[in-house]
TrEMBL record:
It comes from Nocardioides aestuarii. Keywords: Hydrolase, Metalloprotease, Protease, Signal. This is MXAN_6640 family putative metalloprotease. The keyword Protease applies. Residues 1-22 form the signal peptide. GO terms for molecular function: metallopeptidase activity.
Length: 503
């Protein structure tokens, strides 16, 4: 019996142009605040924990932006910003709770000092301070030692102990914060490098954070310390890269904790239509996209992320590139970033078979699909933003029980120069994954025919990809790479699926 699914699938495809996730379906995210007074307001809100809904406040990047804007602030605003950026030991005048209101003490190793107070709401026990120092020493050995990143920029005697890295314990749970790092002074002759100090919660109580305190400490210390490392490469780097790699490194240090899984529902594993390089302080896209760097490290080893940061760095011998340029520079010869991104998007169709821990990850929000039988044809049109994809899930009807049945997938996409890609991911009844890349010509057109029957196909995923990395960089006020304007946004793909029979 012939059934036409054109109307049904076209409806599903059309819906992807305006998904149910209204908060994220926008060609350009909310503009980056550029007026110094707005940046100051953002920093205040982050330290207050004032963010929409139940999303985690982002303090480190808010303080980074405030540090960048500091020279443009005047009068009371300047003084207020300096209080916000000050260390807890610099005084108790900060209305946002940064200043200790009691005398502090410290416990140090050869490279790190942990500071605490013994009374007030910020008090931390000596035992927890020792635990924090022990964890931070392991973080240092992992990130600076084993993985080979630069140590954070030394701060002279600002913390009182000859250039050691300073961490302050404070009550942060009431502000919705885990921890944060703040840049403090620029390095002479290297205006994009800065030292930093970090602040972590004073006990990571299960009642506030929901997990085992030492585990929450481990992932937070790994994440925030990596921000201090980043400030020694380029503290002005694109924020999506800073947060995604800091969340990725949690997995390198504390793989057993899996705290970063909480962000996957807003990363590209699930929200495939949101661009990879999106940064939004009111959402968690940038945290959830640690999986891109997980994919890179699976392909090329953990050292690929260090190569990315060296490509972004400002020291002699570094690349001085913005995020996507640095990623491209770090890839092996003859591996193109658009091709790699398309394969990453295809891997996300079957996370359980693509990543060691992927069986615990969410699956994509499917853009459309359904069951197809003999003679069925489905078609539709969809627009895709840069560095994003739409996934379609197609299943053969039981009547397709002969090996002669196949599916022809035709694509009429944007021009080749905009980096369109189409990948077919076939899951076999035995659990194997077979990937077919559809060759597209200069005009963006192409087709491929693959098995589509119950003997050889349990499910087929068609992944349409806009892999463009072309930008007009500069002060366009976007939250994308180089604060730039994507040149190939919301490109149109016309798709056609037809069940055919090979005689």
């Amino acid at each position: 019996m012939r059934r036409t699914l054109v109307a049904a699938l076209m409806f599903a495809l059309a819906a992807t142009a305006a998904p149910a996730h209204a908060a994220v379906d926008r060609p350009v995210p909310a503009p980056v605040p550029t007026q110094p007074s707005l940046v100051l307001d953002r920093a205040e809100a982050a330290l207050d924990g004032r963010v929409p809904g139940d999303h985690r406040p982002e303090a480190t990047l808010a303080l980074r932006d405030l540090f960048v804007s500091l020279p443009a602030l005047r009068g009371d605003d300047r003084a207020h910003a300096e209080r916000i950026l000050a260390r807890p030991t610099d005084g108790n005048q900060d209305p946002y709770g940064d200043g200790y209101k009691a005398r502090s003490t410290r416990k140090c190793s050869d490279t790190i000092c942990v500071h605490r107070v013994k009374r007030t709401a910020d008090k931390a026990s000596g035992r927890f301070a020792s635990t924090t120092l022990r964890v931070l020493k392991k973080v240092w050995r992992a990130e600076v030692g084993r993985l080979g990143y630069r140590r954070p920029v030394k701060d002279g005697r600002l913390g009182g102990r000859g250039g050691k890295f300073d961490v302050y314990l404070k009550e942060l749970g009431s502000q919705g914060l885990y921890g944060y790092c703040a840049p403090e002074y620029r390095v002479r002759d290297h205006p994009r490098l800065a030292n930093a100090y970090c602040v972590l919660d004073n006990d990571f109580a299960r009642s506030q954070y929901g997990g085992k305190p030492v585990d929450t400490l481990r992932v937070t210390a790994a994440h925030e310390f990596f921000h201090a490392i980043q400030f020694g490469y380029d503290y002005r780097e694109d924020p999506w890269l800073m947060e995604a790699t800091a969340t990725w490194i949690e997995e390198r240090f504390a793989d057993d904790v899996n705290d970063n899984r909480q962000y996957l529902r807003e990363g590209q594993v699930r929200l495939t239509h949101v661009p990879l390089d999106t940064f939004d302080r009111d959402r968690s896209f940038q945290y959830g996209n640690w999986t891109f760097f997980e994919y890179l490290s699976m392909r090329f080893g953990n050292g690929v992320v260090k190569r990315i940061w060296k490509g972004a760095g400002e020291l002699r011998g570094d690349g001085g590139k913005y995020s996507l340029q640095a990623v491209r520079r770090a890839l092996p010869d003859r591996v193109s970033l658009p091709d790699l991104y398309a394969r990453y998007a295809a891997a996300n169709a079957t996370p359980g078979r693509s990543y060691p821990e992927g069986s615990s990850w969410p699956t994509p929000d499917w853009a459309g699909g359904g069951r197809l039988g003999r003679g069925d044809v489905a078609s539709g049109r969809v627009r895709i933003s840069h560095l994003a994809a739409h996934h379609f899930r197609l299943t053969p009807e039981a009547e397709l029980d002969r090996s002669r049945f196949r599916l022809k997938v035709s694509v009429d996409g944007p021009a080749r120069k905009t980096s369109p890609r189409m990948v077919l991911v076939r899951l076999t009844p035995g659990g194997d994954v077979v990937t077919t890349e559809v060759a597209l010509d200069k005009a963006g057109e192409g087709s491929a025919t693959v098995p589509f029957n119950t003997l050889r196909t349990e499910r087929l995923f068609a992944v349409a990809v806009n892999a463009s990395t072309r930008f007009e960089c500069g002060s366009h006020g976007t939250r994308y790479s180089c604060r730039g304007k994507p040149r190939d946004e919301r490109k149109l793909f016309a798709l056609r699926f037809k069940v055919v029979s090979r005689r």
